[in-house]
Model the fold of this input.
Amino acid sequence: MKFDTVIVGGGLTGLVSGIRLMQNGQKCAIISSGQSALHFFSGSFDLLNYLPDGKSVSNPEDSISELSLQAPNHPYTKIGKSKFAELAQEAKNFLSGIGIETQGASNKNHYRITPMGIIKPTWLTMPNFAFIEDGKFSWKKAAIINIEGFLDFNPEFISEAFEKMGIEISLQYFNLPELNTIRKNPSEFRSTNLSLVFDKEDNLDILAKILIEKSQACDVIIFPDCIGFKNPEILPKLINKVGKPVYLIPTFPPSLVGVSTQLYLKDYFTKLGGVFMLGDNVTHADIEAHHVTNVYTLNHGNIPISAKNFILSSGSFFSQGLLADSKQVYEPIFNLDTDYLTDRAEWYHTNLFEKQNYQQFGVKTDQNFHGIKDDMPIDNLFVAGAILSGFNPLKEGCGAGVSFLSALYVAEQILIKEKTYESIAQ
Done:
């Protein structure tokens, strides 16, 4: 099997880079072992919320110079300040171009509401999700409405957070007889299964009636993200019938918006002609003179999968893009050089909420994100996303941004490289 580019990893990074390359005429394959971190997606993409020293960031674009001083190996430092701003805008345009509209900009963070009611800075937020701009809501009274027995949404925590901001709250619960079948099994009473009920056109009128009755005298309705999975038109119809805004707040994983975003990007990639190998793992690769020729997968055995270029976007420890034993942190496919602390006692802090050093471990790359092996860059292997070293996605609030911007960056490097080769050949 031969391709222009083979991408290892089917999460946000792999899908974005794959779609961008396919849009520019490349033949691509994505090899994905299964679920990605997108299933934990909150409905918002974070770009840069805090500097490594803990200082909060309100304007990510203006903070890149200081970030570069504090974190010389950060992916954003390698991208550079001007390119960072360019790619951040390109990311928003990329989503819009494939039919995903977002709210937000890279020169001013706004604030999202987590499932626990915590207010956090963010970059881009999906439509219909509650967010705060300029430090306050535009409404005075909100009805927070939850389904009876639904534990993945905590209206009490959200209510407390809203009340601290001067919002008057009406806390309401409801039930539909059709939900009782799902409720019998607590493990099935999740947002994805609830949406199978709420997405039915037959239930639209009764749900609208319930929301109207339970939100009287309120400016807006706050509702858990458990609607619109299979029927994206149902929420706009519901809002129209209710006659007032209905804002969603993400639930605990698996996230409905995360699963739907993953499926949307995957479908978009395959409709462009991309090959998505789901449920397969790359086991090893052929590398000759710092050049990858083939990769091999568990499902395809000794059948080589060859390409002009390869992208490693297999994620960090969560998705086993990185592995660790008692002595080292290593990358298992290409055996690339990795950054990690040699003293294992320094890998983690016993306080879960403190900075965890292992979150900054990752694969070494050069300035153009070529993977490095035995201190030498591999000329056709690019590394992007969570597997990169030099950043702390949780403490810095930059995980999605690094994934998105590095994906676009390496796709651009591949396109420039191939265009140069074509010009030389002519």
